[in-house]
Amino acid sequence: GKVPASSILASAPSDKNLDAWRESGCRTTHCNLEVLQESTLVFLATKPHILPGVLQEIRPAVGPHHIVVSLAAGVTLQTLQRFLPAGTKVLRLMPNLPCVVQAGAMVFARGSGAGDGEAALLKNLLSSCGLCEEVPESYINIHTGLSGSGVAYVYLFAEALAEGAVKMGMPSGLASRIAAQTLLGAAKMMLETGEHPAKLRGDVCTPGGTTIHALHQLEKGALRATVMNAVEVATNRACSVAKD
Q1: Is 46 a known ligand-binding residue?
Q2: Which residues form the Pyrroline-5-carboxylate reductase dimerisation domain (predicted)?
């Protein structure tokens, strides 16, 4: 809602990828260079293996007034700067899926040519899509393991939570809605109170109550260690993709 749709120009090789942009009222083209000619802030949202060819194509049209933001996984700032003219204002952004419902978690890092103004502009624009934080580039692969892939861990947990209720006799649709609202409420409390999750977890537990008995079962299943291991392997995979 911060930019009128008519101010956005999207480019893609096929009409199929442009339909959603047209339906939103954005202008479209099949020419990447046209985007550079008409825009100041340029987002590069391609598959990593396609990005070098796109960078070579647009390089002649990139000027000092452009701000180039890459969403390509694994493509470093150093690589982006190598393909673009010296001094280009380059930033690297990593979003996650819930951005589509304005509840995303995004991190970005800036290249040597980008200053505070470019970082503030990007953060302000993306704040309408959720949490947006500037980080050192080394954190981007960790963010992939924590939040990019982490969305799937949460869906798996939500599925198991709901299935537990179904096992005990609750209808599936109702169980899924309550599981989703439980996750939403718990996350909102973490963000709004600023409390450590261990403190909030302790607040739910009463001596000899239902929660501490359930938590004991989760600890028996090594839930905490398993989730930590999942973040670790996803981060390492993101690092290896970057090297490929």
Answers
A1: yes
A2: 137-238
**pLDDT tens across 26-74, in order?**
999 999 999 999 999 999 999 988 999 999 999 999 999 999 999 998 8
The answer on whether 47 is annotated among ligand-binding residues is yes
Task: Name 202's Cβ contacts closer than 8 Å, sequence gap at least 6.
Answer: none
**CATH 1.10.10.10 fits domain 149-242:** no
Superfamily of domain 5-136: NAD(P)-binding Rossmann-like Domain (3.40.50.720)
Q: For 108-135, write each residue's pLDDT tens digit.
A: 999 999 999 999 999 999 999 999 999 9
The response to whether 238 counts as a known ligand-binding position is no
DSSP type of residue 67: E
For residue 32, say whether it is annotated as part of any ligand binding site: yes
Q: Is 76 annotated as a binding residue?
A: no
> Which structure tokens are listed for 107?
């991190």
